[in-house]
Amino acid sequence: MLDIIVSQGRVADRSAQTIIGARLTAAAVAQHYPASTQTIGTPTAPAFDDWTESLPQAYKTLDALGSALAAAITRDTFPLLINSTCPASIATLPIVAHAYPEAVVLWVDAHGDFNTPETTDTGYLGGMVVAAGCGLWDSGHGAGLNPHQVILLGARDIDEPEAELLAQAGVAIIPPAQATPEAVLTALAGRPVWIHIDWDSLEPGYVPADYAVPNGLLPDQLRDIFAAIPKNHCLGLEIAEFHASDGESENQAATTNILKIIEPLLPSP
Length: 269
Hints:
The protein has nine helices and eight strands. By secondary structure, the chain is α/β, with parallel strands linked by helices. The termini are close together.
């Protein structure tokens, strides 16, 4: 059974549509799979603020997300976190690192998310998530992730200071053109895996995302990669950054794409 944890509290959201997108995704998944659903946080207004403001504002939501995941890991269920934004993983990555020290984190994203307060040129919390999990800066929510056990899949928008940090830390990168089931399985090397998906990893037009970048992964390409990973190797899944539209048909199309892509990872209905 799925253990769905859906985040509805603002974690650096710059649009109200990402919180709506998480809610719509959770509802779509629950329609097709036996699931227990827990909602964390209450929506608040979006803002274009700096990480020094958004991180303290999100403290309660982040703390509750970490606690909810830690509890889910103790149950005989499959954790599925559905977040509005990637910064929610600031709370979850340390929990994963502690519970599964041998696991690889497959970070499916157009971006590296490996900036620090010293290197970021935008101040956006979402660009600093993986670096926080790896202990390059102190988010206040823990660390413990080994960068040698991080694989960036689909990354293609990485600035120069961030690229230097990634290289120094030894993070593996598989860009879209090289993203095949064989390449991913080779990188995983039979190890258990925790998977994070930011929908900007896809080629724009399939699942709307705030920070879309061209030349991304295709839905069938990503689905084929997930289908090649043995189900008993996947420890859990978190997805984020679906920017819901105002049209029901557009949202239906997006959630259909989401369900198709992640289906190989989920327990059979």
